[in-house]
Design a protein that fits this description.
This protein is of the alpha+beta class. It contains 10 helices and 13 strands. It is globular and about 50 Å long. The structure holds N-hydroxy-L-asparagine.
Length: about 325
């Protein structure tokens, strides 16, 4: 490429305050796929299929994402979500979740204990309170008032993992890139309405009281039904410092493809956060026209993209 062309591209990129200017406009035009569609982080086929059944049957995107991620919340084999999630350093399972709907309405809970479905409590916060987020014992009291029941979420398996960790008590707030399954999900229903949800037990063996990105609107999840939505997984601190999902939606609003927007959000982390080689972050986005895309720091992040009921698991492209 001539140096003049390079200069013009750089200058335009600089004017827009973006670093990957050329890739935005090189991205594919919006696909006409539309809804219904369901995307979700990692390879949780059962959760994605549940959400698909809801939208395929004419249900709302909000019901779909709630019922979809509830599958992960109840799965004892999912070590990063709900029942079976690994506890904090004190042996307590503390949960974070949020939901957001087409219009921008949203609800969240964080540091919630002994309630199997934090996503449903987050929805109740959205629908039955004037607030966005409830935390800890207040969130639990609200859940009980709403008819949820207490359940001990620490499975024998998770308790063993905690006991094993306690032998060394090495506090390493770094995600093992091979082993995390926080579920973020975005859906479009048959009427074109969008919704998103995110739910997690957070980092294993975290300091008691630590809250990650997953319940934070704009970090773990953001959605504007006119534009699209984005969810995050990985080291929550990195995502919170960069307002990752909000950034992705705003980039899509400016015309970036979902994949290019996810990559740009990662580039901000790479630029500002020195330790980026030692942790994983994965972003997943769904544009209002049904086009999905993802990008992660390390390889190994995958996602489900479902437009037909046959949503395969796909590997995301990665920075490193
Ligand atoms: C957190 N983002 O609490 C979550 C962790 C995660 O798969 O995504 N685990 O930081």
């Amino acid at each position: 490429m001539s140096s003049r062309r390079k200069f013009v591209r750089r200058a335009l990129g600089g004017l827009l305050g973006v670093s990957a200017f050329p890739s935005v406009f090189a991205s594919a035009p919006p696909s006409p796929k539309g809804g219904p569609a369901v995307v979700s982080t990692w390879k949780n086929v059962a959760a994605n299929s549940k959400a698909w059944q809801v939208v395929a049957g004419g249900g709302s995107a909000l019901d779909a994402v709630e019922q979809g991620v509830m599958v992960a919340e109840s799965d004892p084999k999912d070590l990063s979500v709900g029942y079976g999630g690994r506890p904090d350093r004190d042996g307590r399972v503390t949960l974070d979740a949020c939901v957001m709907e087409h219009s921008g309405n949203c609800g969240a809970v964080c540091f919630l204990e002994d309630i199997e479905h934090p996503v449903s409590v987050a929805r109740k916060v959205m629908e039955h309170t004037p607030h966005v987020m409830l935390a800890g014992s207040g969130a639990q009291r609200f859940a009980l008032e709403q008819g949820f029941e207490k359940k001990d979420l620490l499975t024998e398996n998770a308790r063993k993992a905690w006991k094993e960790w306690k032998k060394k008590e090495k506090y390493q707030p770094i995600i093992n890139i091979e082993n995390h399954d926080t579920i973020g999900m975005l859906a479009i229903d048959q009427s074109g309405q969008m919704a998103g949800a995110c739910t997690t037990s957070g980092l294993a063996f975290k300091i008691n009281g630590r809250v990650g990105d997953s319940p934070i609107i704009g970090a773990g999840l953001y959605l504007d039904g006119e534009v699209g939505g984005a969810v995050a997984t990985g080291l929550g601190e990195a995502v919170m410092k960069s307002c990752g999902s909000f950034l992705i939606v705003e980039l899509m609003r400016q015309g970036w493809s979902p994949e290019a927007a996810c990559r740009e959000a990662l580039s901000r982390i790479v630029k500002k956060q020195k330790g980026y080689r030692s942790f994983q972050v994965g972003f997943l986005a769904l544009r209002a026209d049904g086009e999905g895309g993802a990008y992660s720091l390390h390889s190994g992040f995958s996602y489900m993209l479902n437009h037909t009921g046959e949503g395969g698991n796909q590997a995301s492209k990665s920075w490193l």
